[in-house]
Hints:
The radius of gyration is 18 Å and the shape is globular. It has one domain: Vaccinia Virus protein VP39 (Rossmann fold, 3-Layer(aba) Sandwich). The protein is 24% helix and 37% strand. The strands form 4 sheets. The chain has a 4-stranded mixed beta sheet. It has a two-stranded parallel sheet with strand order 1-2. A two-stranded antiparallel sheet has the order 5-6. It has helices at residues 6-14, 49-59, 73-76, 121-130, 149-154, and strands at residues 2-3, 20-21, 34-40, 60-71, 78-80, 89-91, 99-107, 110-118, 133-139, 160-167. By secondary structure, it is α/β, with parallel strands linked by helices. It starts with a strand and ends with a strand.
Amino acid sequence: MTDVVAEMVEAARQANSAYAVAGVDDLPFDGGSFDLVMAYNVLMDVDDVPTAIGEIRRVMKPGGTLLISLVHPFRDRGRFAGEAADAPFVLDGSYYGRERFDGEEDRDGLTMHFAGWSQPLEDYVAVLEGAGLAITALREPIPDRVDSDLLRKWARVPLFLWLKARILA
């Protein structure tokens, strides 16, 4: 397991797990090392997705599986027109093309900073295909609980996209 955040790696070490500080563009593992690779909410933060996917593909064993979780590309391109649960979701500009995002969100007294790249699903698919990977499953999970106006609003628009891909024979 790797993470670019040293504090996350240290927390994992304290839990007796084997982790390394490394970026996805230069993984410190031999080729063909893993049956399963998980890229959890990381690809939208990577400047060079083709290099990252190529490196992931390199460390996968033949017949290996890649699981990807992304903030849904559609979510990054729009906003709700108001605070009400039934407020329209408005697309800002175009869904197509690669765009940089950088912003802050305040929630429960915490300010979170988000920065990365938004790109359409087709771009991710093309990169996977180019690396010799085929998508075998796609999910857009719906929240289990919608007990507030905020959650009801977000239950109408996909927040995450989950992909399962395998190495093509």
